[in-house]
UniProtKB/TrEMBL annotation:
Source species: viral metagenome
Annotated TM spans: 6-26
Entry keyword set: Membrane, Transmembrane, Transmembrane helix
Protein known as: Uncharacterized protein
């Protein structure tokens, strides 16, 4: 029934050719993914610097000052 509308051998040949084209053109598409430490993922991730050294961050809880004038407002980073 479906072969009435679609030529099956041509469909599979064109599908394979399309997949090969996508595979070979996307092979060099290496993207940098920037991951910033958050309180939720600080214990889960390891980072590597430009020299190839691996390191981790450790979170430290600090008490807030009672004087609100000492608090700084940091804008959202986009």
């Amino acid at each position: 029934m479906i072969s009435k509308y679609i030529n099956v051998p041509i469909f599979f040949v064109s599908l394979i050719v399309g997949l090969l084209i996508v595979y070979f053109t996307m092979q060099n598409d290496l993207r940098k993914i920037y991951v910033y430490p958050t309180p939720e993922n600080v214990d889960l991730l390891q980072y590597r610097d430009k020299a190839g050294n691996c390191f981790v961050y450790k979170s430290v809880d600090t008490p807030c000052p009672k004087n609100e004038a000492k608090l700084a407002k940091i804008p959202v980073q986009v």
